[in-house]
Design goal:
It contains three helices and no strands. It has helices at 3-34, 40-49, 59-82.
């Protein structure tokens, strides 16, 4: 099989797989993202971090979280590469 036909078969398989899962996966994501109930693991993480799971996140809090996550990631990658 040539590379061109392999690519075409791959794309057709990808489109078919997405066509099969878009409805059940979309329903699942909508249920998870709009649900008001939190799993026990989520509640435990919220309690340990002092987070209110029902409160909205302001732009300032979001900015601080992104900067902290980026900073920790840079430090982790630096240490990983040095070791």
């Amino acid at each position: 099989m040539s590379d061109t036909w392999a690519g075409i078969v791959f794309l057709l398989a990808l489109v078919a797989a997405l066509a099969l899962v878009h409805k059940p996966l979309g329903d699942y994501m909508a249920r998870v993202l709009t649900g008001k109930k939190h799993l026990a693991v989520e509640r435990g993480i919220y309690k340990a971090g002092g987070i209110d799971g029902e409160a909205d996140q302001t732009w300032g809090v979001y900015l601080r979280s992104v900067l902290w996550f980026s900073g920790v990631s840079v430090v982790f990658l630096y240490v990983f590469l040095r070791v």
